[in-house]
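User: Assemble these into one structure.

Assistant: Restating your components, then the assembled model:
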Amino acid sequence: MRLFELCAADRDIRFSPFVWRVLLALAHKGLAVERVPCRFLEKEPFAPSGSKTVPVLEDDGTWVADSWRIACYLEDRYPEAPSLFGGDRGRALCRFVTHWADRVVLSGLFPMIAADVCDCLEEPDRSYFRESREKRLGQDLYALRETREERLGPFRAALAPLRAQVSEQPFVSGQDPAYADYAIAGGFIWCRGASALEVLEPDDPVHAWRERMLDLFDGLARKAKRAH
Amino acid sequence: MRLFELCAADRDIRFSPFVWRVLLALAHKGLAVERVPCRFLEKEPFAPSGSKTVPVLEDDGTWVADSWRIACYLEDRYPEAPSLFGGDRGRALCRFVTHWADRVVLSGLFPMIAADVCDCLEEPDRSYFRESREKRLGQDLYALRETREERLGPFRAALAPLRAQVSEQPFVSGQDPAYADYAIAGGFIWCRGASALEVLEPDDPVHAWRERMLDLFDGLARKAKRAH
C-alpha cells in the first residue's frame, strides 16, 4: 500500500491536511503504508489514479483519490479492522463533520498560514502555489499574513461547536477517536507543520483535544517534521 | 407520555426549536404523546422535573428535561423502535450536529426573529421575554428586527456545511432522516412558526431539505399553526 503525499521543499515536511486525515485513518486501521512524497507539481507518480491532487492511495493495484473516498475505501475494504465511522449512520454524520472541517477549520486557517506554506516551498512549486492561491483568495498571501492576528478571534469563535463537543467528551467521535476527529485534526496538523502561528489559546478545550490528537498512534502527528 | 411545550399567546402556536426536536424524535420512534402547552412563565405543570425550561417529558412517572437528554432517554428506553442515532458512534457524532445547530442555526436565527417571537406573546410572558432576551443579546429586539436583512447573507453563508451535506444526500443523517436532522430542523420550524421572514432562498439545497423535513410524519411540522 502506498500513499502519495504532498511535501515541501524539504521532502520530510508533509503538511497537507487531507493527507493527514488519511494517515490517521490508516493508523486507526492498523495498516502499514509506504509514504511517497510529491511536490505540488509532481503529478506523474500518481497519474494512474486520474487525480491531479493528493492524497492518492494505491492498494495492490487499486487507485483511490480524495481523502473522503479513501476513508470510505479503507472502511469497506478492511471491515475487520477498527471502524472509522461506526456504521452507515456514523458514516453519514461523519460526512457532515468533514464538511464542517473543510468550510470552517481549513477555510479559517488558510488565509492565516498561506504565506507560511508558500515559504516552505521552492520553485516551481512556490510560484504555482502563490499564483493559484492568490487568485482563489483574491488577495496577496503576504499581505494576508500581516493581518492574521485579527482573524484569530473570529476563527476561535467559529470553533464553538467543536469546543462544546470536546468539553463533554474526550473526542469528537466519543470516548475514543475515529474519522471525525481525524478530519478536523488534519487542519491543525497542517497549521502546526507549516506555520509558527499558535491559533489556539492554552486554556481552550480545543487545545487539549489537539494535544490528544498529536499523541495518538505513538505520537504520529507530534513527531512530524515542522517548518518552524 | 406527556410532553410539556412552550406556547404563544395563542396556545396552539408551539414554536420552541428544542420542543420540535423532541416532537420529531417521538414521531420517529412512533410514540404517541399528550402535548401540554405551557407559557414561558407557567412552570408549575412540569415542576416535578426540577427543570425551569421545556421541553420536559413525563413517561409513566419518569421525568426528563432538556431536548438532548430526552432524545437519549427515548433511544435507551425504546431501543426496539427506529434508532435516532444509529449506535454509540452515531450518538456521539449527532451530539456534534446539535452543538452546530445550537451555535450556528439557532444563534443565527434568533436576532432576526426575536421581535417576532415577542409579538406572539402576551403579558406577562412578553415583558419577561423581552427583558431577558434583550439582556442576553445586549440590544433592543425591535431595533434588531430593523437590521435583519443584513444578517441574512452571513446566516446563509454559515449554513455551508449543511448545504454541502444535503447536496450529496437527502438527509443530514443519510438516505433517511434521524435525530441530526431533527436537531437542525427544530430551528427552521421555530422560525417558520414565529416569523414571516423567509431565511432561505428557493434554489438553496437547504430549502429543499427543509421542505422534506416539513413533509415528514404526514406533515407534522408543516401543519403546525403559524403566527403569520
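The two ends of chain A are 30 Å apart (CA to CA).
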